[in-house]
Amino acid sequence: MGAIALCMASSTYGLAQNWIKTGASQAAIGANAAGFVACSLNDTIYASAPGNNVYNNFVYSTDKGVSWSTSHSILETDYGRIGQLVAVNDRVYAAVKLPSNDYLYYYSIDNGTNWVMDTVGLPHYYGMPTAQKDAFRLKQMGSNHILAFNGLGITGAYIKQIGDPAWHEIFPVTGKSHQDFTWMGNTWFTIKVSGLNDPEKLMKSTDNGASWSALNFTGLPAGFTPTFLESNHTDKLYMTGGIAGKEANAIYYSTDGGNTWANTNASAVYTDTNATAMDLFAIEDYVVAKYTYMSGDSVPRYLISSTNTPNFSFGDPSGFTPTNPAMYQWISGPLHFFNAGDALLAVHLDGIYSSKPGFTGGPVSLTDISAASFKFYPNPIRDHLIIENSQPFKWRIISLAGQEMINGYSDGLQDHADLSLLHKGVYLLVINDNQACKIIKD
After folding, report:
1. What is the C-alpha separation between 347 and 65, in angstroms, rounded?
2. Radius of gyration for the chain, computed over Cα atoms and rounded to the nearest angstrom
């Protein structure tokens, strides 16, 4: 059995919002840039915004947005712009939108110094035999996978695990288009564009997308059309509806892997039926949702919850201040939320903004205790770690830098964690977010 080398209990924080504009705009183009795309990996933020001279520029910050690198372009020529950035494992992916509306996909493992094209296995743009590829949305999935998908049923979705030589197609529902994907532990989830009461609108996979089954869910009203799907990747799923269906301003959540859904108070807080809940972001017990009016509105509006049972309230938009507000007097602009460690980041109009509402973003606030209520073995680990607990539990493997590497959930008293893909080194095994122990991957 694994002796407890270092075990800890987590502390809690109160909810706070103080948005501060970072220097991303000046770093990216030397002026106030609009149209940012951004993502993060641990404490590092990656960003790009179209400029007057360099449209595929790339900048990064290793200190959560306090300071930024100098700007440089991904491509040698000013050809296309970065449409999306996604970080997974040890690399950042860039989807470069070309002038012809097709795409190329690259990744970097050295903060953008060098870029490697990664398109083998992806379909050509509208089937044309060119180097360019179809338009996909990239999304990080569990077990160091990255997913490329769009809403076209004829195109489908493609997956690759970091290190695989090529992308390969997955078929959640053959011939059907899929609106969104997410993951929780070792289970993946998808929602698909379908009839309002299609029983296969929610599906799951427990083998990294190789096979899928329909969820026999309850709690969603007839006519509800899921559009955005998100997870905190440990124990909760969140979902919003589309503008074509019922309750577009509602947010539903599930704590049993998508089988049972409950409505939150979001639609009671945000009562305008012409508004749509969008761009969900979740971490720990925190969940944030941008709200968009169907008509003009210049205020960036969002809801935020920080409790175990979601209880939304209006987010404080103060601090979201464009340098030239007259340019944006008729629009609220996008709000794209993500985190870098314990910082909540938001892309808004001509900048990237930062706040610290209270989540840890990793085991950075854990404090020592003398014993743990769970067992784990072997330690050091070669491939598999066995975890035993006195009641059902969730677990996470986190690097010492705070990056979550893999997680899972056991409804029994034992779970087998496959750590074969982890590099050698020291990690933290976190149980139920309140106990953690050092483990060694050999």
Report:
1. 12
2. 21
d(CA 164, CA 146): 11
User: What is 298-317 written as a DSSP string?
Assistant: -S-EEEEE-SSS---EE---
- Taking alpha carbons only, the member of 287, 312, 344 closest to residue 20 is 344
Q: How far apart are CA 340 and CA 62, in angstroms?
A: 10
- β-strands 351-355, 103-108 pairing: unpaired
* Cβ–Cβ < 8 Å for 428, 436: yes
Cβ–Cβ under 8 Å, residues 406 and 344: no
Neighbouring CB atoms inside 10 A of 19's CB total 20
Nearest to 199 by CA among 209, 214, 177, 181: 214
**pLDDT, tens digit, 9 for 90 and up, residues 205-254:** 988 888 888 888 899 887 787 888 999 988 899 998 766 556 778 899 99
pTM: 0.77
DSSP 229-285: EEE-SSS-EEEEE-TTSS-TT-EEEESSTTSB-EE-SHHHHS--TTEEEEEEEEETT
| Closest to 342 (Cα-Cα) out of 121, 43, 10, 6 | 43
Strand 91-97 relative to strand 81-88: parallel, antiparallel, unpaired? antiparallel
CB–CB of 46/89 below 8 Å? Answer: no
Hey, CA dihedral for 379, 382, 385, 386, is it positive or negative? negative
Integer angstrom CA distances of residue 194 from 40, 156, 198, 217? 32, 14, 6, 16
**What is the set of domains in the chain, with CATH numbers?**
12-355 (2.130.10.10), 363-441 (2.60.40.10)
Tens digits of per-residue pLDDT, 162-171? 889 999 988 7
Contacts of 435 (CB under 8 A, 6+ apart): 7, 8, 9, 369, 372, 373, 374
**Cα 315-258-145 angle, rounded to 5 deg:** 85
How many angstroms separate the CA atoms of 176 and 373, rounded?
46
Are 344 and 354 in contact by the 8 Å Cβ rule? The answer is yes
More confident residue, 243 or 12: 243
Query: Which residue in 150, 95, 157 sits closest to 121, CA to CA?
Result: 157
The answer to whether residues 238 and 305 touch, using CB atoms and an 8 Å cutoff, is no
CA 223 to chain centre: 27
Q: Dig out the tokens for 11 from the structure.
A: 């502390």
Does a cis peptide bond (omega within 30 degrees of 0) precede residue 300? no
- Of the candidates 224, 319, 287, 311, the one whose C-alpha atom is nearest the C-alpha of residue 17 is 319
